[in-house]
Please model this.
Amino acid sequence: MPQALEREEGCWAWAVLLASLLNQGLTLGFPTCTGIFFTELQHDFQASNSETSWFPSILTAVLHAGGPLCSILVARFGCRSTVMLGGVLAGLGMVTSSFSRTLSQLYITAGLITGLGMCFSFQSSITVLGFYFTRRRVLANALASVGVSLGIMLWPLLSRYLLEDLGWRGTFLIFGGVLLHCCVCGAIMRPVATTVAPETREGPPPPLKIPAPGSLAACSRTIQRHLAFDILRHNPGYRVYTLGVMWMILGFPLPHVFLVPYAVRHGVDEHRAALLISIIGFSNVFLRPVAGLVAGQRKFASHRKYLFILAVLLNGLTNLVCAASANFRVLVAYCLAYSVSMSGIGALLFQVLMDIVPMDRFSSALGLFTILEGVSILISPPMAGFLVDATGSFSYVFYMSGFFLISAALFMGGSFCALQKKEKQGRPAEAEGAITEAAAEWCLTLEGTDGSNKRLCPEIMYVTSV
Model:
């Protein structure tokens, strides 16, 4: 029996928007609560800080790096089925992780399986908004991103409450049931009655050439479609931005993992320590939409990358303040300042990428961007855990985070200024060449009545810009 199709911008679109908001809170907001379980997991498995930190790093890395695989599933089965599949995988991974006897089993279940399921569910729910909303697409994405802030606010509080009564195993079992609600959100996302895919999600058309036989050629075409290595080679702006964000990510996620253990180590009550992450989430509920509206102003269109760099620099400086003192009031002030810079980074991260890359190649550029971002996320927490094991102090984690963020901001700022200066220097030469070529084309040879040739050159002496 054929499925009923929904209309674009119809009443059901707002139900899909609500489902996407909840889905983002369930998936993208979840990794921020892993720091609540850091000490419990470390004691239960008798593991070092570096070994324990592999669990949140694998979870977050797979959540971000599985984008190309998710886009293939969406193209084959649709957004609705992919979201529901992701919910099943995420719930199954958390349920099985509650029976883990070793950290290696936890890496596979709560890290790999849950992370992959969250990736399918989260990225598909973002894609479906592009089908349901055309005129209000920017507003829909801004409202849906509020779900991330709600998740950051609520997941730590729920984790702390369940951990006291059920332990980490019982809590993970409950989390498996909670994540199954992604299937309910996916069921709401009915197919849309349109034949036009959303502009920002459609990949480039396949090249018009005769394919070579064999699976190797098919694999090569798939990689070319979903991973933009050619843009990485030939677009210097994309290359600078990708390398800068990879370096930035080595420090950006560390406070979410180590802030709670850092506060507990310095005598802060566990409930108040968990409240710190919720303060970040609560602040982002209001700050992220404001940051999106400011970044969307036309007068800031040509300066978005510099606003992003400023947010990264502010984020690194606030981490240095956190490392200087572990007093609870100082930590609350740190969380508020961190929320401001975090909301700017979250609002501008993909918008700057859209400004740098042509929209017809955005999908493939985003695929490569998220994979490289996932590599940094994978190695960042274990590096910080190794640093804690070597020094015995969590303060060095925040110094490390500040170093990566500040150096990334300086690298991107200097590189973009150099590229902009080089571009301005190249414009006069291009303009002079265009004027010379235009003058040659406009010079006409006319044959007179006496048979002599006369040359007519129109005056174009005052062309000042192209």
The mean pLDDT is 80. The longest strand covers residues 444-447. The CA atoms of residues 239 and 316 lie 22 Å apart. Residues 395-442 form the longest helix (48 residues).
